[in-house]
Amino acid sequence: MINTLYSTKLFWPLLVTFVLLNGFDAHSTYLVMRPYHYHRERNPVARWAFRRMGIPRGIIVFKMVLLAILIPAMIFYSCHDVFIINIVLLVSNLIFLAVVMHNYRVYRKIHKQVEI
Is 116's pLDDT higher than 60? Predict the structure, then answer.
């Protein structure tokens, strides 16, 4: 496993997974926050952006800016220390997976309450 973490072959699937999880995070955030439930967003910077730009534009702009900064930085950093960036991406993907799963759980809980 340690040797794999030193490989650029692992970097690209981890990066693609990171982008996909960010897409699912955007979708699940939209479901939880629509139409105007900004208080459900726990990230204060994201919440500020969503209030300023609205939903879904705020979500799209926030994610695009975030990914436009992070992806080139990760690619640059992977050229210098692929081991560290692979660990960072692995941990980030696990965190984003937990966030996305939580968002969809919250959405299902909210949706059930509305139906009752």
Answer: no
CA distances from 115 to 22, 32, 40, 92 (A): 29, 15, 20, 35
Place of tokens 């992977």: 78
Structural domain harbouring 78 = 2-115
Entry pTM: 0.87
Four-CA torsion 73, 78, 81, 85, nearest 10 degrees: 70
Q: Which two tokens stand for residue 53?
A: 């730009």
Number of domains in the chain: 1
Tokens read off for 16: 């693609």
